[in-house]
Design a protein that fits this description.
Layout: E1 3-5, H1 10-18, E2 22-26, E3 36-40, E4 46-50, E5 53-59, H2 65-72, E6 75-81, E7 88-100, H3 104-109, E8 121-136, H4 151-170, H5 172-175
Antiparallel strand pairs: 1-8, 2-3, 2-6, 4-5, 5-8, 6-7, 7-8
Length: 205
């Protein structure tokens, strides 16, 4: 039987920290818009900041649907599945906000996520939970975690910050979502913190 929770307590925090992957779902307000569901990985890229607040690094890619949807309406759901151990699915429904690189809060939030920091960070997504619940994961398969993929960190590490900014500017669906909603503000502003990309070419994990 599923349960709802008033806060992310130590047990839930431990469960979140133990999962190597989580999923993010967002959608535009339009009934004709495209629902987006994205897997997220890279060890250390998500942190529980408080009893109802989480943050994760938004890394660069060819699309920016999550950012576009959050800028329009703020709705977001995070989900974790237990692929080992007791079968559990945990969801956090809430409101999300992209904190961009030129926002004073960016540098203040980064220490909690510094273990995954590297070239390729577009924004930090801050999520305030409105509903926290779990359910059985009886149909989720048992799978073994092997290791982190390092390709993303290595790819953008070779480009450096200037190359990453050019990459974002060159991608149609960084500037706007597939439905035309404003996404990443371009040109990408420089990082305000001195440690940007300090270990750019190193694997993250």
């Amino acid at each position: 039987m599923g349960k709802t929770y008033e806060r992310i307590d130590d047990r839930l925090r431990t469960f979140i920290d133990a999962q190597p992957v989580f999923f993010v779902a967002t959608a535009p307000l339009s009934g004709d818009g495209s629902v987006n569901l994205s897997p997220k990985g890279r060890s250390g890229s998500l942190a529980v900041l408080g009893e109802r607040t989480l943050a994760y690094l938004d890394f660069g890619g060819s699309h920016a649907e999550t950012i576009a949807h959050l800028r329009e309406n703020g709705r977001i759901t995070l989900m974790w599945c237990a692929f080992t151990g007791p079968p559990t699915v945990l969801r956090v429904h809430g409101r999300g906000e992209p904190v961009f690189r030129d926002d004073p809060r960016f540098a203040a939030l980064m220490p909690a996520l510094a273990g995954a920091d590297a070239v390729g960070v577009r924004a930090i997504i801050v999520v305030t939970a409105e509903r926290i619940s779990d359910s059985c994961g009886f149909a989720v398969p048992l799978m073994e975690y092997r290791e982190e993929r390092t390709m993303h960190a290595e790819y953008f590490g070779r480009k450096g910050e200037d190359g990453f900014a050019h990459y974002c500017a060159s991608k149609e669906f960084n500037r706007a979502s597939v439905d035309g909603l404003p996404a990443v503000p371009l040109p990408l502003p420089p990082r305000p913190d001195a440690n940007a990309g300090a270990d750019a070419g190193a694997p993250v994990g």
